[in-house]
Each structure stands twice: as C-alpha cells, then as structure tokens.
C-alpha cells in the first residue's frame, strides 16, 4: 500500500550529533615526539574550530574517569625556569596511549601565559594508520578542596586527534592568580593540587529508529454496515481492515459499555488482530481519526467524534463509552437505525509508523 510520509522525526543518539559537528574541525599540523622532553610548537587548540564551538565549565563530585595527576610540589615546578610542562606517564584509553600534560605557568605558544594549561596528547605510534582520526570526548578536571568538587572544563565540539595534531586541550583553564590563591581551594595543604581527565571514545550508534506520520492514504475510510443491529451480541467487532499499513477494527457495544450501559452507544477503534500479533511491547502507533455514525434518514446529520491517541499493546483501543445517546438510536424517527442497520464509519487522518534499525 502506498502512503506519503511527511513530518519525519529522526530519533538518534546525541553522540551522533557530536560526530556531525566534529567534521567542521580540521587538523592543524603539529609534531609531537614520543619523549618526555620539551615539545616545540604547540599550536592553539582553538585555532581550527568553528564559532559554534564553546567551552563548558562546571563543578562535579565525580572524580576523573581516565587519569588523575596529583602534584605535591606545585610551586617548585612554578619556580623552575626550565620546566614548562609536566607530562604524565602514558595511560591507555580505547586502543590508544595518552598522556596528560600540565603547563603550570601556561602554554606560551597557545596564548596560555598567566593561566594553567591542560592538554592530552595521543601517542601517535598507537594510531593504526597515518590517516586515522580519533575523535574523543574530553573533559579536564582541577580539584577544588574547598568545594570538595572538581572544576571541569570541556568543549562542546569534538576535537580530532590525527598524526598531524596529537595534542588538544585548553591553554586557559584557570588564571594563575585564581589558582594560586590558597583561599580558592585549588592549591591546598601548602602546595598540592590535582588534575585529571576523562577521555571517552564513544562508538557511533548502531541502533536507531525513524518515526514518521502519514497523512494521506489511498483509502482513508472504513464504513461498517451493521445489519441486524437489535440482535447483535452486546460486544461486537467489525472485520479487520487495513489503513496506513496498520490493521484495525471497530468495536461497538450496542447497549453501551460499563457505566454507560443502557444509556449510550459505545464505539472504539482498536488495533486489529494482525497488528496485535506483531506489535512488540514498546511499539506505539499514533493515530488521528474521526469516528462517525451517519444518519440514514433525510437529514444528513452525522454524529462524529475525534480520536487523537497513541495505540500500543497496553492501549489497544480508543473510543467513546458515551458516543451517542441510545435514545437517539431507538427513536426510529431519527434515522440512525434503518431496517435494523446501523452505519459506523472511521476516517483516518494521520497514522504513524516507526521503523527500527536493526529491526
Ligand atoms: C614554543 O615555540 C617556540 C618556537 O616555535 C619553541 O622554541 C618552544 O620550544 C615552544 N615552547 C613550548 C612550550 O612548546
Ligand atoms: C601503552 O601504554 C602501556 C602502559 O599503559 C604500555 O604497556 C604500552 O607499551 C604502551 N604502548 C605503546 C605503543 O607505547
Ligand atoms: C598530515 O599531514 C600531511 C602533510 O601535511 C598530509 O599529507 C596528511 O594528509 C595529513 N594527515 C592527516 C590525517 O591529516
Ligand atoms: C449518554 O446518555 C445520556 C442518557 O441518555 C445522555 O443524557 C447523554 O447526553 C449521553 N451522552 C452523550 C455524549 O451522548
């Protein structure tokens, strides 16, 4: 059956959005040697990013997940003329080796003078090919003893590590004046501090779903001519019909259902047996429809009531227990029942389908 899908809504994981934005960031040439020596020319981590990218800062209780680096003699490092940076030992995250790099006086070459600079460097020998791009999510940590929390800094963009760009991070994590002031809690117990990093290499989603709503169908109406209305079972189902690729049926309680018994005609639209056989517990189908009982008499009066509902294995049917007064049906002068026949119609206006990948 053909149908025309509009209003398509794609539900994907947020991770994929990171991957999409990351494609804006191009690599910038940069050479890092494997040794613990001074490394020339650390280019700005911000130079190749798009304007959408922004820095996100916060405070959190949870310690870093990938690596923690405690320094107990920070001021000694600060005072050392020849120490520009401290590199941690290599640690493994994913298939790669990384080091956490701290510039206690800031990375001059990345406009970090006067700030604490934090970076991670990938060991390029752990890249599997010279063309490989590694796009991790990075979050850097600085412990704040006063708050008993970690100050965190991350970028909304995803940075791409390549053979040509092996180090990424923030040249200006905290101003040295803020960091070094003992009142602020970053430097504590005389001369201690702690840095850390989360490196997460999220996989691209493998499961997804596509939700769409069709609003036009080759046959959008089903009309049910109920013969012998007065002798029907009190709970009566129509034959199954298919609209919008979904099987349905109508259910009528000719003498009313529940509290409306003896008062009102009850009328429902249900998912059909075929649909119920194949629906999974999490399936849901949105439908907008009009339920109608047309008058077969001279007047073209129609009782109609709208449906705008989600159908699921938990809610297989929706309708009205008080669709219309039974008195209107019994009164032969009204024309709703003629020759003991009641006509019931449903007109579907919108029906959703959800595709799951893999199904
Ligand atoms: C900064 O750049 C200069 C010149 O390129 C280089 O000599 C120096 O080693 C670099 N310093 C750092 C900390 O990368
Ligand atoms: C990566 O780091 C681990 C220790 O974390 C080390 O055993 C291993 O040799 C390193 N790999 C390379 C290629 O340097
Ligand atoms: C690294 O740089 C070289 C030379 O500039 C270039 O040919 C190569 O494509 C770059 N590789 C990556 C992964 O960007
Ligand atoms: C249901 O039946 C009662 C009693 O006949 C009537 O007063 C009421 O209007 C009916 N409800 C609807 C929605 O038709």
From TrEMBL:
The keyword Oxidoreductase does not apply. Residues 64-199, 219-348 form the MATH domain. Residues 1-25 form the signal peptide. Keywords: Signal. InterPro entries: MATH/TRAF_dom, TRAF-like. Pfam families: MATH_2. PANTHER family: MATH DOMAIN-CONTAINING PROTEIN, TRAF-LIKE FAMILY PROTEIN. This is MATH domain-containing protein. The gene is A03p044430.1_BraROA.
């Amino acid at each position: 059956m053909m149908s025309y899908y509009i209003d398509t809504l794609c539900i994907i994981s947020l991770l994929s959005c990171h991957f999409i934005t990351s494609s804006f960031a191009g690599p910038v040439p940069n050479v890092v040697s494997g040794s613990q020596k001074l490394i020339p020319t650390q280019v700005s981590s911000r130079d190749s990013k798009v304007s959408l990218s922004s820095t996100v800062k916060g405070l959190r209780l949870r310690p870093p997940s990938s690596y923690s680096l405690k320094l107990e003699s920070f001021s000694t490092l600060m005072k050392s003329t020849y120490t520009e940076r401290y590199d941690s030992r290599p640690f493994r995250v994913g298939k790669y080796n990384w080091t956490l790099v701290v510039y206690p006086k800031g990375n001059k070459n990345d406009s970090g003078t006067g700030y604490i600079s934090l970076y991670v460097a990938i060991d390029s020998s752990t890249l599997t090919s010279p063309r490989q791009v590694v796009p991790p999510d990075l979050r850097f940590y600085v412990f704040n003893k006063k708050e008993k929390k970690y100050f965190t800094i991350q970028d909304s963009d995803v940075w791409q590590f390549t053979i040509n760009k092996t180090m990424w991070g923030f040249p200006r994590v905290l101003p040295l004046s803020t960091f070094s002031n003992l009142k602020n809690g970053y430097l504590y117990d005389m001369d201690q501090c702690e840095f850390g990093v989360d490196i997460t290499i999220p996989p691209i989603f493998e499961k997804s779903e596509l939700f769409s709503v069709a609003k036009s169908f080759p046959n959008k109406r089903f009309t049910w001519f109920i013969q012998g209305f007065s002798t029907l079972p009190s709970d009566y189902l129509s034959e199954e019909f298919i609209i919008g690729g979904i099987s349905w049926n109508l259910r009528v309680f000719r003498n009313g259902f529940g509290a409306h018994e003896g008062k009102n005609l009850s009328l429902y639209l249900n998912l059909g047996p075929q649909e119920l056989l194949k629906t999974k517990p999490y399936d849901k189908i949105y439908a907008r429809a009009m339920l109608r009982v047309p008058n077969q008499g001279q007047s073209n009066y129609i009782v109609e009531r709208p449906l705008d509902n989600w159908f699921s294995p938990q809610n297989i049917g929706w309708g009205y227990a008080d669709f219309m007064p039974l008195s209107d049906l019994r009164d032969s002068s009204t024309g709703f029942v003629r020759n003991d026949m009641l006509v019931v119609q449903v007109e579907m206006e919108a029906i959703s389908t959800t595709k799951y990948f893999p199904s």
